Amino acid sequence: MVIWHNTVDASRIPEYVSPGQDVELWIGTYPIEGGQSVWLELTLRKADGKEMSCKMPAQWHSNNEQRNNSYWRALLGTFEAGDRVEYRIFGSHDDELVSCDETYSFEVS
Fold first, then answer.
1. Helix or strand or coil: residue 34?
2. Mean pLDDT within 74-87
3. DSSP character for 16?
4. Which of 15, 45, 102, 108 has the smallest number of CB atoms closer than 10 Å to its CB?
């Protein structure tokens, strides 16, 4: 299983986040296989210094049969000015655990 994010076909929407905007993440996996799961580990740092972490599942959305890819979506909700969000994406199939090489982040302004 291969997993990716922050590409043309699997992006964060919106790319630049303003206060009150809904944020969604698109994630791709290859190949199409039953039994896959995708999730992210997210840390939210508030402007006042408080920090919260959680594990959030992504939901399967669709397959692209021509490319043999699956696409997943995670709805993060809204954030406030000054929030900093960091996340890392993981996936599994059978006993195989994979992750994106990068930790992604954005600041709300």
1. coil
2. 97
3. S
4. 15
